[in-house]
Amino acid sequence: MADDCLFCTLVRDGDHVRAADGFVAIKDIAPQADTHLLVLPERHVPSFREVGEFPPDEAQRMLEFVADTAREAGLEDYRVVVNVGEGAGQTVFHLHWHVLGGVAA
Ligand code: 5GP
Ligand code: ZN
After folding, report:
1. Is residue 3 predicted with pLDDT exceeding 90?
2. Ligand 1: which of 91, 93, 95 to mutate, judged by most atoms within 8 Å of the beta carbon?
């Protein structure tokens, strides 16, 4: 856990749509689609580049958590987006997965 990390704080104290097994889902504060959720792992890594720091079983559970979050939100068709690096639009440096469903804003 990183002391000054917004998403570490939200993993601990945020308003979770769902939580299980080292992962949480929250609503994006500035939704870009009808449904815009963020999946945050409890484990702090700065970006997707460091995804190799996850033990293999945890990485698999993270992907399943993303899929389960979309399903439980009632989404059949949706997009999963990970921005990697400032040049790609990443603004919070704690790995997270955008789950976007419905009409884009
Ligand atoms: P990124 O741009 O790093 O891929 O995604 C960061 C996302 O976090 C953005 O979509 C932004 O709207 C969202 N965000 C930033 N601050 C907060 C916050 O305090 N609460 C929530 N729920 N979302 C946030
Ligand atoms: Zn963090």
Report:
1. no
2. 91
Tokens of 86: 């400032």
Stated pTM of the model = 0.97
From CA 90, how far away is CA 79, in angstroms rounded? 17
Sign of the dihedral defined by the CA atoms of residues 26, 9, 41, 32, in that order: positive
* Ligand 2: centre distance to CA 46 (Å): 7
Q: What pLDDT, on the 0 to 100 scale, is given for residue 70?
A: 98
96 assigned to active site: yes
Cα torsion 41, 46, 49, 54: sign: negative
Give the pLDDT confidence of 4-35 residue by residue, as tens digits.
Answer: 999 999 999 999 999 999 999 999 999 999 99
User: Tokens standing for 23?
Assistant: 């992962």
